Amino acid sequence: MGLKQSSMYLILFFLLAGFASSFTHISNGAFESHGTTGRNLLQAKKACSEDFEHKNYTILTSKCKGPLYPTKGCCDALKEFACPFADKLNDLTTDCASTMFSYINLYGKYPPGLFANMCREGKEGLECPEQTASGLTITKPSLLILTSGFLVLLFQLF
Is the pTM of this model over 0.70? Predict the structure, then answer.
């Protein structure tokens, strides 16, 4: 009986740990301009390692068209384009975010600040689905952990 009870506690621990996991996101700070102010000789930003100049921006330009700029279409297109680079865009020591938005505005001829004012999903910024090594998107990791935990529990009891 002690083994079953310790197994139940272990399963419960992993379920709770799964619920505590969070989605990848693009921080709101990536949308803001971090222009130079004052003396920042030691705070120079590193060049972005991602080549945003040669990316395919048709995801954005085909779904986010003016003059009305539909919020859902524009924000969904931005997430589809930017989420694969979320780690690089959130690194405030590089110029990745400003470089990407410069090219977005250049190729899409969007008004300045369009995406920063329109696309907000919470205090963390835009939520990006997690990418697996195989390219499949996991949008609900908690559900996957909960289901697998339930199956393990079911096999333990019967």
Answer: no
